[in-house]
Specification:
rod-shaped, 2 domains, mainly alpha
Amino acid sequence: MDEVSVTRRHSATPEQCCKNMISVYIRRTLFNPHAPCKFGGSMNLIRESSDSYIVAVVVVSTALVIELVIIIVVVVAVVVVSTALVIELVIVVVVVVVVVVVVVVVVVVVVVVVQVVVRALAV
């Protein structure tokens, strides 16, 4: 029974097992760098684990960038929609003002015409 299988069997957690395996790897490479590795078939356990951390960091950062892009798109969409709503509100206000002015002008013209007709008929 070698040191690695003992490390794997008696470790309490996967994290502890990984730490023990790394310490075994360091001891083996310090004392005999040409010894074959019994776990994973590679003498590059630390480099491989750091590569997997790098991959994880790249994946997480890519996800964060995608999320940031989605947030920016949503903010731009909200700004565009709110700008469109403000423009629509301005158009509605202008139409209402124009309608009110036209109605007032029509009422004034009708009142003036009625007064002129009444005065003309009174004479």
